[in-house]
Structures are given as C-alpha cells and as structure tokens.
Amino acid sequence: MTLKEIVEKSRRIVFFGGAGVSTESGIPDFRSADGLYRQKYSVPPETMLSAPYFHAHTEEFFSFYREKMLPLWAKPNAAHIKLAEWEHAGKLLAVVTQNIDGLHQAAGSKRVFELHGSIHRNYCTSCGKFYPAQFIAESTGVPRCGCGGVIKPDVVLYGEQLDPDTVNGALAAIAAADTLIVAGTSLTVYPAAGFIDYFRGENLILINRDETPLDASCTLVVHGKVGEVLGALPSFTENL
Ligand code: APR
Hints:
Blueprint: H1 3-9, E1 13-17, H2 45-48, H3 51-56, H4 58-68, H5 78-88, E2 92-97, H6 103-106, E3 112-114, E4 117-124, E5 130-131, H7 133-138, E6 151-155, H8 164-176, E7 179-183, E8 203-207, E9 220-222, H9 226-231
Parallel strand pairs: 1-2, 1-7, 2-3, 7-8, 8-9
Antiparallel strand pairs: 4-5, 4-6
C-alpha cells in the first residue's frame, strides 16, 4: 500500500517527530552534516546543553542558548500544518515530539507531547514564576526573576529526567495508535527513541532524509523531506 492509502484508512494516527521536522522551517537539526552538533565550539554543544554545565557555567549556557536555541522567527512548515489538519479532521490522536520549538502548537495542533520540553516555558527556580521565551531572548547574562532567582527554560537538558505526565501521555497515545508515523529523527537519543517500541498497531511508517536504525522494521520507509511528503497528502478536512 502507498503512504496515501495507509493514511486514508487510518483512524488513530500518532506522529513521532524530531529536529528534522523543523529544518524546512529554517531550524538546523543536530546530527546532520549542517547540524548544530557539527558546529565547532570550544565546549561541545551537547556538553553545554547538559544540567551540570547549566549549573556550573550558567552565563555561558545562556549565551549559547540565546544564540542557537531560540529561533522565535521560525514558522510552521507544511508538515506541522498537515498534522494539525489531521487532528482537526479526527484522523490524528497526538503529536509526540522531541522538539522544543513549539511549531506544532503554532500550526494549530492541540494534543502535543513535548518529550524534551519547550523554549516557550521558562520558570524562576526560586519562586516558580512563569516567563515567555521573548523575556529570555531579550535578557542579557543570566536571566533573573524579580525575586532574584535564576529563570530556567523548561527544556530537558542532558542528565535531566523527562516529565512523567508527558511520558505517560505519549506512551498511551503510541500504544493506542493504528498507524505510527516516525519522522525527522535519527532515533539515537533515549529514552525518547525507545518509545517506538510501545507501538502495537498495523502500520509503522518512517519518513526520514537519512537512514535510521528503524528502517528495517518499518511497514513503509520514505527517504525524503517530511514537509514535502506530508504536504502532498490530503488534509481530510474538506468533509468537516
Ligand atoms: N525531512 C526528513 N528528515 C529530515 C529532514 C527533513 N526535512 N531534515 C533532517 N532530517 C533527518 C536527518 O536525516 C536526521 O536523521 O532528521 C534527523 C534529525 O536527527 P537529529 O539531528 O539527531 O535530531 P533528533 O533525532 O531530533 O535528536 C534527538 O537529540 O540533542 C538531542 O534533545 C535533542 O531532541 C534532540 C534529540
């Protein structure tokens, strides 16, 4: 069956995505040739994005974070838009994403499980007060709350735990899906990459530019750009 035929007959689609879903919005991914982790820094980006580094070198963390992790100019692309349409049409149960850019919600998706958090949520580590991403983008040095506390982005840094409610919601959705579409991810970071194992449905589809460890066990593998591939599929909203 073609991707279009599988999607047409699916009733409970879940989408599991990574940084490759946002590259067509202009946000580099991490491990491709032009990815963030390929860029030269005195301290490796994966070290700078870790909890120990955040606590020991907070000012350096925020200068890297502001420069590379706050693409507030980015807009949803055809992939984000199509997924929001499928949810609206009752075809898609949820989006499970490793991304922190908020583009799925910007496209209109409602049930989004952000396994690695979001740049749009920032909290004072002392009093818990909420701050938007813009506040962090406009701050200098270590962003501080009116109470004096350090404001920390609600993103999962290396060495930190994923939010249990988010994990439970994502696993329940994946376990209930009849079709799981995995896209734009190298499937190299755990525990996120292991969530795929909870899928019990009929069609496991992979849409990824490069090969992944999952290729051999999929119903269908499409090596292409996820925005183009999803953009070419029907939205199923015409009969709403
Ligand atoms: N369409 C389809 N696939 C794409 C596209 C695209 N337009 N652009 C890139 N890709 C693919 C690449 O081929 C690559 O396999 O997306 C994948 C992106 O892989 P990574 O850069 O490793 O990103 P991701 O899998 O999301 O990383 C997981 O690592 O550093 C952590 O927390 C970070 O959430 C991130 C996690």
